[in-house]
């Protein structure tokens, strides 16, 4: 009797499992967004990113002054750009400013972000004041610092003992220093905000275990905080690299590429070629080179860092 009941119940149990799995799969299908959700973003991306990029790529093989019909010239624009010494110099200046941005902003952002993630007294007020540059546009920031550093009535004119003749924009070294400083002042809060959020997500149990083992704050920072911020550091660096390669407003307002061509970076040189010299073909070449360079460098950073594999930094934490 018992055997018969068991055999009769067995198919019912199996059917229940199958129906449960089916219900789970059905609920998963219902909860997963369909392709239709991505259609608006895809259309927007194609219209305002892919199509303009293709148009710029086509324009790079044409001669056009802004009026009339473009004329096909083949590789002439590319040859002129690569033979232009100002263009070669602008590439090195762009790389220099990008490297300076990463070197200066990364340690400052990490330290400020980790500090802002704590529970110090008046931390919220100080952080709010420090994050004010995030509310300003690059144009507003550049105009502000152009006035503050003006050699005639700005801070340098009142502190000649520190700034010499006060003309920080008259020499390449000081002009590049001003550009790096202004970019650091403006964008460090953004990256600090990234590190602040990442630092708050670190489980406190790691620090508690480190304290039990006798590790001090400095040791905890280098052996717990920094490793846990690894993915955030990579993301921040990619943003810095792309931002450094496409910087334009700061140079336009602060130095205008001067003195001479000593601060003429690639993005500003593109502007000069296209909208001052009306050589839109050469400007398109430079624009395309910037897009390709930013993409390649970002992919290299992602590939070498292993960030593309999205390895967790919280393995073993439950």
TrEMBL record:
Residue ranges crossing the lipid bilayer per the database entry: 35-62, 91-116, 128-148, 168-187, 233-254, 280-302
RNA-binding found in the keyword field: no
Topology in membrane: Multi-pass membrane protein
Keywords, ordered alphabetically: Cell membrane, Membrane, Transmembrane, Transmembrane helix, Transport
Pfam families associated with the record: BPD_transp_1
Domain ABC transmembrane type-1: 91-301
InterPro entries, alphabetized: ABC_transporter_permease, MetI-like, MetI-like_sf
Cellular localization per UniProt: Cell membrane
Family affiliation: Belongs to the binding-protein-dependent transport system permease family.
Stated name of the protein: Sugar ABC transporter permease
Organism field: Streptomyces griseoaurantiacus
């Amino acid at each position: 009797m018992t055997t018969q009941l068991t055999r009769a119940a067995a198919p019912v149990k199996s059917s229940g499992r199958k129906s449960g799995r089916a219900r789970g799969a059905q609920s998963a299908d219902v909860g997963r967004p369909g392709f239709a959700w991505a259609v608006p973003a895809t259309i927007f991306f194609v219209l305002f990113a892919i199509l303009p990029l293709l148009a710029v790529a086509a324009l790079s093989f044409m001669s056009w002054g802004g009026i009339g019909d473009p004329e096909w010239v083949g590789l002439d624009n590319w040859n002129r750009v690569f033979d232009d010494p100002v263009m070669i110099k602008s590439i090195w200046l762009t790389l220099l400013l990008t490297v300076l941005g990463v070197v200066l902003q990364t340690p400052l952002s990490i330290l400020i972000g980790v500090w802002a993630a704590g529970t110090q007294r008046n931390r919220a007020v100080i952080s709010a004041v420090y994050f004010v540059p995030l509310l300003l546009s690059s144009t507003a920031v550049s105009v502000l610092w152009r006035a503050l550093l003006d050699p005639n009535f700005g801070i340098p004119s009142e502190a000649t003992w520190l700034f010499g003749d006060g003309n920080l924009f008259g020499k390449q070294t000081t002009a590049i220093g001003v550009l790096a400083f202004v970019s650091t002042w403006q964008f460090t809060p953004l990256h600090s905000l990234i590190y602040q959020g990442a630092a708050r997500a670190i489980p406190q149990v790691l620090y508690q275990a480190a304290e039990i083992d006798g590790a001090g704050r400095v040791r905890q920072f280098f052996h717990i905080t920094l490793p846990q911020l690894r993915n955030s550091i990579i993301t921040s660096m990619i943003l810095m690299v792309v931002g450094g390669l496409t910087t334009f407003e700061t140079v336009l307002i602060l130095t205008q590429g001067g003195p001479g061509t000593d601060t003429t970076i690639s993005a500003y040189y593109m502007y000069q070629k296209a909208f001052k010299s009306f050589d839109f073909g050469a400007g398109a070449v430079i624009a395309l080179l910037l897009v390709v360079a930013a993409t390649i460098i970002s992919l290299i950073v992602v590939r070498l860092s292993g960030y593309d594999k999205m390895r967790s930094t919280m393995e073993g934490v439950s």
